[in-house]
Design goal:
Helix content: 40-55%
Oligomer: single chain
Largest sheet: 10 strands, mixed
Shape: globular
Structural class: alpha/beta
CATH architecture of the largest domain: 3-Layer(aba) Sandwich
Distance between the termini: 45 Å
Number of helices: 20
Strand order of the largest sheet: 5-6-4-3-7-1-8-13-2-14
């Protein structure tokens, strides 16, 4: 038998002693969380929430913004403090890459297998596995998809469609009808032409196209709502532009309507809710847009939590498909030669708080005249929407409102990015309610499919 060195033995002894003094209660609490009675048994309903493109930095910044600038905390963070939430880390690789795209990531959930990037539920050998919607439908459950992207975009499609390219959004719109997905709410009106809309209506779908129609709608029948031609606007723009605020529902409102429509399902339902534009803000390196859409997603979590409080037979899952952009708040020194100590990073709060001054996304600015500006005209226009006074060098970086704009803004806010691409880090996964104790502390993204079906008592 191999002998343990004295230093190693001392280390193990010290570790055991530390656990005995400090760690026993924490370990017990962790076990109580996973084994809480609320987390056992078989769920009737499932709410599966996806903050697309969210890394831990995006989650942290939303918490920091709500705490510092709105005087509260996020629903997501409070869940960890107040509820027996089961947490996991998830590896997000696709079949073709250690960095996934949304199509492959959603397909992993949708069919339980690794798929190549850019492909939706078509295996590398060309075969098309049965997807989650079909399995749930066969078991008598209703299904719904809600997204702030086009409703035919990669993430919602991953739960219900099979196409060799995520760009085939018109085909996905047709497949939704053919497969009788019960509820569809999001953007993407351009993929539902008049002829297809008539087919949806003939099949019994109520169709709505604005916030007023959505909130006034009643009944439990199939519903199709498309609230913008393409993706729905960023939340920072939606709530500040009166026309958008009047016409476009919030993610929380879509979620509430979806739950009210589906809850009468005799055998239960599955509802996917996606905050899609966190990912798009990551690609654009737009910190303010990222934070406001993450907070809009958090408001939707609040709707889901209120629902499960009244319907404790519902499993709630909250996660993301991958990170995007690598957003992070960095410590900011008041002076370049500031020493480490109690006063270190003393400018961080003031820098971060400047994000409260932003009133538009980069996307909105580009669409409303700033894209072709440079020099003083660009600096003045950016100041109007951000209150930041950019230097000539920063203004040059911001020209075109691409990745350089994120760099320029970061020099004033402390929030910076690693890239404009998806990232490959482990991501957050949490679950609450019956069936949540089946999820292990570490998973591959494809594992969730089988565990979810098993918790529902449906054959994989």
């Amino acid at each position: 038998m191999k002998q343990i060195s004295t230093s190693r033995r001392n280390f193990l002894h010290a570790s055991a002693a530390t656990t005995a003094v400090f760690g026993a209660e924490k370990s017990l609490l962790a076990n109580e969380t996973r084994n809480a009675s609320a987390n056992g048994g078989k769920p009737r309903n499932v709410i599966f929430m996806v903050s697309d493109g969210m890394n831990h930095g995006a989650l942290s910044l939303a918490h920091l913004y709500r705490q510092r600038l709105e005087g509260g905390d996020t629903v997501w963070n409070r869940l960890y403090q107040e509820r027996p939430v089961v947490r996991a880390l998830v590896e997000t690789s696709s079949h073709s890459s250690c960095v996934t795209d949304s199509a492959a990531a959603a397909s992993a959930w949708g069919c339980g297998q690794r798929i190549n990037n850019g492909v939706i539920n078509v295996l590398p050998d060309g075969s098309t596995p049965q997807v989650l919607h079909e399995k749930l439908q066969k078991a008598g459950r209703k299904t719904g998809l809600v997204s702030t992207a086009t409703i035919t975009h990669a993430t919602p499609a991953g739960f219900a469609a099979n196409v060799p390219s995520r760009g085939q959004e018109k085909d996905i719109a047709v497949q939704y009808l053919e497969r009788k997905v019960d509820l569809l709410l999001g953007g993407g009106r351009k993929f539902f032409d008049d002829d297809l809309l008539k087919k949806y209506q003939a099949a019994g779908y109520q169709t709505v196209e604005n916030r007023k129609e959505l909130l006034a709608g009643k009944g439990t029948g199939p519903l199709l709502g498309t609230f913008s031609t393409g993706h729905m606007p960023f939340e920072i723009d939606r709530k500040r532009v009166p026309k958008l605020d009047n016409e476009v529902p919030t993610l929380a409102e879509m979620s509430r309507v979806a739950l009210s429509r589906l809850e009468a399902a005799k055998e239960g339902f599955f509802l996917m809710i996606e905050g899609a534009r966190i990912d798009h803000a990551g690609h654009a390196n737009d910190a303010a847009a990222s934070i406001h859409d993450q907070l809009a997603f958090d408001d939707a979590i609040g709707v889901a939590v209120a629902y499960i409080d009244k319907h404790p037979d519902t499993l709630l899952i909250i996660t993301t498909d991958h990170g995007c952009g690598g957003i992070q708040m960095n410590g900011v020194k008041a002076k370049p030669d500031e020493e480490f100590g109690p006063g270190s990073y003393s400018a961080s709060n003031a820098y971060f708080d400047r994000l409260a001054q932003f009133t538009r996304s980069f996307e909105w600015m580009k669409q409303n005249g700033l894209n072709g500006l440079s020099g003083d005209k660009l600096a003045d226009a950016l100041e109007k929407y951000t209150q930041l006074k950019l230097t000539p060098e920063q203004t040059k970086l911001a020209q075109g409102l691409k990745g350089g704009a994120g760099v320029a803004v970061g020099e004033h806010t402390g929030v910076t990015w690693t890239s404009q691409n998806h990232t490959g880090e482990l991501v957050e996964f949490c679950a609450l309610g019956p069936g949540s104790n089946q999820f292990p502390a570490f998973m591959q993204n494809r594992d969730a499919h089988g565990i979810l079906l098993a918790s529902l008592g449906i054959a994989v």
